[in-house]
Amino acid sequence: MADSSRRLFELVFRNKLDEDTLMIIKPFNIFLRIFFSSKFKIRNGYITPRDKTYYILPFIFVSLFKVWTVYYVYIYNSSILNNTFRHIYFWHIFISYCIYYSLLVYCNIVNSQNNVVLILRIQEIFRSIHLKNGIRSYVIWNWITFVVLASLECFCTTIYARTMNLLSSLNSFDILLSICYDFNVACSIRLIKSLTLNLVEWSNTDK
């Protein structure tokens, strides 16, 4: 009960972000918003949890779109499933995406407040350590990581689409939706990296 009250207090009264923190989480928020998976909302320098409708409405849309994709492939483009390997691979991609995306939506809804509290905790750590140079380097590598990942994903999905004869506007959008999971993994890794930087700097200050 005490933890819940403290979390609520922070979300309402202590959710102002510093410039350094805004600079850190900006690449996270931009790329995740593209794939309907933003963890928080930032307005006028204040961070707040996303509403449930932000996740539920895209989930309904994406689910209907995935069903339509299967229908489209089987009715209008069934020639791409002309052998067992392609058939199995197609369903593997489809089922994997459904599982990953469902888990992401569930975690985003359940942990909507925790995601904001995590950012506020990281901000408190940065305030106490004063890691100015490390922050700049970290932010630069965030942008590099996400831009390189986006480029590689677009390249790989294009190759996949050409191989499966799926290179159309409909299926290209469907394939791009699958990148959402990879960006969430990349964001998690980069957040862990920020905590590692804080730990290293904190250990150095005690020497």
From TrEMBL:
Keyword annotations: Membrane, Transmembrane, Transmembrane helix
TM region positions: 54-76, 88-111, 140-161
Transmembrane helix in keyword set: yes
Protein name: Uncharacterized protein
Organism annotation: Helicoverpa armigera (Cotton bollworm)
